[in-house]
Amino acid sequence: DARVTQTPRHKVTEMGQEVTMRCQPILGHNTVFWYRQTMMQGLELLAYFRNRAPLDDSGMPKDRFSAEMPDATLATLKIQPSEPRDSAVYFCASGLVPLGPKHNQPQHFGDGTRLSIL
Amino acid sequence: ILNVEQSPQSLHVQEGDSTNFTCSFPSSNFYALHWYRWETAKSPEALFVMTLNGDEKKKGRISATLNTKEGYSYLYIKGSQPEDSATYLCACRVSGNTPLVFGKGTRLSVIA
């Protein structure tokens, strides 16, 4: 089965350090999403791309977070500088824009990056 | 802003019991509703995608219904088993071009 691959699975680092999380979407999927799992908000959408173009990153703190998609097989989420409040599990998901209501497909999630900022 | 509400927030049932929980969404501008099953320390796994009023979907002991006119979907689990313990997420979108908006989930614990 095709899968969304995220690396690293776990990351522990000190505050102030740069953190880069990577995602390889399912081949052929044209939309990539970054989510953050928090206790209060559940799955919070940070940013998403369609055909590699950023469509919405309003969910991200702009001063420290950045999301890019340098090619169709790689999406990155960077935090610089990192802060303890950034500690969370970050999920990447990919999917296809439906051709119509009957062509809706689910999003497929990676296993997440568990980030701890000390 | 699309608001997706799930209830209850958590649920404890005995093995063998049947259970159900609710996802509510604005009935205007509805495009599709997705149910996901999310086990601890794993990634959310798609269960159903529903688009039409009156849709009913079934996968094993799990089924779901959709009422777009009144803005709700029910997820049913028949004869709950301990392996059904997970958080069940509902997500909606208002068009094919907009991202899914997730509810906060219903955390189900099935006690053996």
**Helix/strand order of chain B:** EEEEEEEEEEE
Instruction: Give the uncertain stretches of chain B in residue-range form.
Output: none
Q: Which geometry of chain B do the CA atoms define? A: globular
Mean pLDDT of chain A: 91
Number of strands of chain B: 11
The span between the termini of chain B is: 40 Å
Overall radius of gyration of chain B:
13 Å
Global shape of chain A: elongated
Task: Please give the share of residues in helix of chain B.
Answer: under 10%
The ordered H/E elements of chain A are: EEEEEEEEEEE
Q: What percentage of amino acids of chain B are in beta strands?
A: over 45%
Q: Which structural class should the secondary elements of chain B be placed in? A: mainly beta
What this model shows, in words?
The complex is a heterodimer of chains A (118) and B (112). Chain A is mainly beta and 118 residues long. Helices cover 0% and strands 53% of the residues of chain A. Chain A is built from no helices and eleven strands. In chain A, a hairpin with a 3-residue loop joins strand 4 (31-38) and strand 5. Chain A starts with a strand and ends with a strand. By secondary structure, chain B is mainly β. Chain B is 0% helix and 53% strand. In chain B, the strands form two sheets. In chain B, strands 2, 4, 5, 9, 10 and 11 form a six-stranded mixed beta sheet that branches. Chain B has a five-stranded antiparallel beta sheet with strand order 1-3-8-7-6, with no helix packed on it. Chain B is globular and about 40 Å long. The relative contact order of chain B is 0.33. At the A-B interface, strand 5 and strand 10 of A face strand 4, strand 5 and strand 10 of B.
